[in-house]
């Protein structure tokens, strides 16, 4: 039990590290004082250019994946391994959204969520990346692309993973082990989507009023 708590706490603390803010400070600015004020890759890219934006994206994505990889390795052979690994992903995501180092005022969670779901349900994560790219190319708003990808993620997890599980002999019953895992992953995707939408509430307001800045306008 104690090891589960250590892993979850470690995941939260790693998720709390604001890489976008740190990279911005290294480049001489506080990204919370410019653009959208967010510490995520989009705002870092907007204020400091593509390279630092991509670096922030990768760092925020990895801080979702690494605690899960570590927990999976540490708990090899443990009965609760899958559950604790999934919870470590959730803890890292919550760390990014509500970081202890920044008075619990963090980012919007899209890159970290992507990292978590690339680990848990890679097909669904890739599907949601396709949605993201299509919306971005069509309408030009990163926030709208993020909101769309997050909204479709629970459905993608359910469709892409429940259908193959249902076809496997012996796991068709609704409460079998494979189904429980799919239910939990779908619920996790739903929870992530709700939190991502909540964190994008200012973007939603700007999109609604037609005031959101297009991605094409802030390319350097
Ligand atoms: O992932 C964040 C993105 O969806 C919006 O970022 O800086 O435009 O609020 P931003």
TrEMBL record:
Pathway: Lipid metabolism; phospholipid metabolism. The chain crosses the membrane at residues 52-76, 83-104, 116-137, 144-166, 178-198. It is a multi-pass membrane protein. It catalyses: an acyl phosphate + sn-glycerol 3-phosphate = a 1-acyl-sn-glycero-3-phosphate + phosphate. One of its GO terms (cellular component) is plasma membrane. Pfam families: G3P_acyltransf (PF02660). The keyword Calcium does not apply. It is found in: Cell inner membrane. The keyword Cell membrane applies. Its main location: membrane. Its EC number is 2.3.1.275. Keywords: Cell inner membrane, Cell membrane, Lipid biosynthesis, Lipid metabolism, Membrane, Phospholipid biosynthesis, Phospholipid metabolism, Transferase, Transmembrane, Transmembrane helix. One of its GO terms (biological process) is phospholipid biosynthetic process. GO terms for molecular function: acyl-phosphate glycerol-3-phosphate acyltransferase activity. Belongs to the PlsY family. PANTHER family: GLYCEROL-3-PHOSPHATE ACYLTRANSFERASE-RELATED (PTHR30309:SF0), INNER MEMBRANE PROTEIN YGIH (PTHR30309). NCBIfam families: glycerol-3-phosphate 1-O-acyltransferase PlsY (TIGR00023). Probably interacts with PlsX. Catalyzes the transfer of an acyl group from acyl-phosphate (acyl-PO(4)) to glycerol-3-phosphate (G3P) to form lysophosphatidic acid (LPA). This enzyme utilizes acyl-phosphate as fatty acyl donor, but not acyl-CoA or acyl-ACP. This is Glycerol-3-phosphate acyltransferase.
